[in-house]
Predict the 3D structure of the following.
Amino acid sequence: MQPLSRRSALFLGGAGAVASVTGAAGLLWGQGTGAVFQAAGGQDLSEPQALHSADGHLQVKLSAAQGRVRVAGRDASVFSYNGSLPGPTLFLKAGDRVNVALENRLEGPTNLHVHGLHVSPEGNSDNVLVSVDPGTSFDYEYRLPAHHPPGVYWYHPHRHGSVADQIFGGLYGAIIVQDPQPVPVSRERVLVISDISLDGGGSIAAVSAMEKMMGREGSLILVNGQLNPELAARPGDRERWRIINACTARYLKLRLDGQFLQLLGVDSGRYQEPRYVEEVLLAPGNRADLLVTAAEGAAVLRTLPVDRGSIGSMMGGNNGGGQPPPGPDGTVLATLAVAGAPAAAVGPVPAQPAPRDLRTVAVTAHRELVFAMGMNSGAQGMGMGGGAGSGMMSFTINGRPFDPARVDTTVPVGAVEEWTLRNTSPMDHPVHLHVWPMQILEQAGRPVDTPVWQDVVNVQARSSVRVRVAFDDFTGKTVYHCHILDHEDNGMMGLIEAR
Ligand code: C2O
Ligand code: CU
Ligand code: CU
């Protein structure tokens, strides 16, 4: 066997977790996804189409369909919005009105969720109980309040029972709510990281019941639909990367060695000051707003292995992940080449207002949500999603699988509540609440001493997290759920009503 060139070594890394375990020969010839390896990495990063609001308004049409799309450098038959993967990026401002005409050209029902936006969950706003049948359209309208926090958000389907399949198949796009006061940078980029598995014919690969219980992880990790794209910068450039973890179940632990990284924030809102970081951990659904100050040389954006637990002990010793773990160096996602004349310095990052801190606010109620997985003998526990876990494992919150006809939690508008999110299972669950972000007070037994706000909060296996939530501004029904979307589809979701 020929020794691998640096390019092919990087490329193999980019092709997925199997590379570091099976070695090149097994990878090239042994996998069902073989055709993908004709596709070289190393193309320039492409960015989704950018749509900007103007005069307080944006009108968008999103057409969800299955069809031929360029994925990982080859022709594939996947799902997409408007024929591109990811869909267009929506650039918004606080106070905007956004109209989205969603057209469903898929074979099954779908709908649309604007993940993280603080907008009404009722009517034709961010209402996840809407179902849009094949061959029909639905007109959404979102009104962002004037005080809406800046940040990185995203949109994706939320039709219970097919969320994992539709996102895994390619339905997602970025939403950026711009800062009132711009951060001076040399360049802004949007990096939507997703995973997918394609079969030899370029179609979305089938996913086993076991993979669904674990939470499926695709064999390809894509950045804006590409494998190991290249980014170019000059020494001293300060770039702003908006990174979205749109993977169905995969956690990302991102590194970019040799470069200076500062986090402006995670999910919505901003840290008061940028935070120097070496790694960024993003559970499924989380987003990072990252400043990269470029230093000469080539740097590899990689994701390192994350231990998110296992159902092996529950399933008789077989760790049902379906895939071997990546090696200690992880998987290559993209390559940054920094060369040329040094860039002119850009101005300082403007100070941000102090984030709200609910630790000093009177709490109106305490609640506990228990996230559990159990062996399941019959239909109980399947929820209306049915399918994957049937007769094998249940996914519940406070003992019950999701039922769209049952309100699990009622909160008065304006309440400030403290929630304990308790995970009794041997796997991590990234817990997401719609509409209202959560301030993390304590995670895995450690108090958080600065205000940290997120809308997806990881609750490690057999551990708990304490958060506070201010149920401001909106009435209506919405949901909280595990953002391992196979778990959500299998029932790990609850309905909350603010009134
Ligand atoms: Cu990203 Cu309920 O969703
Ligand atoms: Cu959401
Ligand atoms: Cu989960």
